[in-house]
Amino acid sequence: MTDTPVAARPPAVEAGPASRGAGSRRLRGAANYLALIPFFAYFGLFMIVPTLVVAIGAFTTAQGAFTLDNVAGLFSDGVSGEALVRSIQLALSTAIAGAVIGGLLAWAVMRGDPDGLLRQLVVAASGVLAQFGGVMLAFAFLATFGIQGLATVFLKDTLHVDLLSDASWLYSLAGLAVVYTYFQIPLMLIVFLPSLDGLRQEWYDASASLGGSPWSFWRHVGGPIMAPAFLGALLLLFANAFSAYATAAALISQGSSLITLEIADKLQSEVVIGQENTGKALALGMIVIVSLVMLVYALVQRRASRWVR
Questions:
Q1: Is residue 60 helix, strand or coil?
Q2: Residue 168 neighbours by CB under 8 Å, 6+ apart
Q3: For the segment 219-249, what is each residue's pLDDT rounded down to a tens digit?
Q4: Total Cβ atoms within 10 A of residue 219
Q5: Which of 14, 145, 218, 249 is deepest in the core (most CB within 10 A)?
Q6: Which of 210, 200, 15 is nearest to 110 (CA)?
Q7: Which has the higher per-residue pLDDT, 254 or 73?
């Protein structure tokens, strides 16, 4: 009996450096995605879930049945319509004031030493003041410009100027506009300053070498370049003021209600109950408006980012 030769088994090939490197890259990529889990959990819990609750509640009754009455009430209810108009007026006026004043302040900071102490202090203070709102900001204005505020007492007792003794303006829509502008200005500086830093000295020198004046440079070069960034910052300020709540709730009365205060009133009212879903419809309208504004802001910022390198 003849033995049949057995085919030789090929030797095992060890994994080379290239395959080990590919495996480590895949592990690092998976680790990067795992690191995003807390962010997605936070985003889903505090953004997606509340938005779904608002959207579903806006189209349902208290018993859970589908209805369009809540959304239709946005157009038929005069109080809600007036509150929406006031909110848009307040947001637009404070956005324009904050954009103009904050833009000029950002330009002044840009003209200074980029590594100077003054610029660092202004930018750091703006970062703090842009987030200084709510009850703290309302109390600060009351302590300064109220009936017994520091500025009111100083003008009356020291300078004998009875200018701020009537502090009722502080509780009106005009007073709220002044308070909102207080945190809109530093926010504008933070948002607009990087765009101004993107302006190159070579552009100004080229314009001057061709006989252009500073006005012609800003009209034909600097202005068109900065326009998208300025418009984007203006839209961001509008969304910031339109969605603010705590400062208005601490200052103004029910006679000058805003859309955010109307939503809170319908959700928390102990006088007229059963309006929670109407409040959710108002909130859904705010979400739509802010989403549209931020969409335009993103498109404008994409164009403006071409010049910020």
A1: strand
A2: none
A3: 888 888 888 889 989 999 999 999 888 888 8
A4: 12
A5: 145
A6: 200
A7: 73
What average pLDDT does the chain have? Answer: 82
Helices of type H across 112-213: 117-129, 135-145, 150-157, 173-197, 201-209
Asked whether the beta carbons of 253 and 171 are under 8 A apart, the reply is yes
- Indicate whether 29 pLDDT > 80: no
Cβ-defined contacts of 157-163 (< 8 Å, 24+): none
Determine whether 222 is exposed, middle or buried from the number of CB atoms within 10 Å of its CB (0-12, 13-18, 19+).
Answer: middle
Residue reference for tokens 């910052």 = 233
Contact 103, 195 (CB under 8 A): no
d(CA 230, CA 221): 14
pLDDT 10s digits, 176-193:
999 999 999 999 999 999
Confidence of residue 1 (pLDDT cuts 50, 70, 90): very low
> What 3-state DSSP class applies to 63?
coil
Q: How confident is the model at residue 309 (pLDDT cuts 50, 70, 90)?
A: low
Identity at 286, one-letter amino acid code: M
Rounded Cα distance between 206 and 214, Å, is 12
Let me know if 8 is exposed, middle or buried by CB neighbors in 10 A (0-12, 13-18, 19+): exposed
What letter represents residue 239's amino acid? A
Nearest Cα neighbor of 61 from 77, 73, 78, 75 is 73
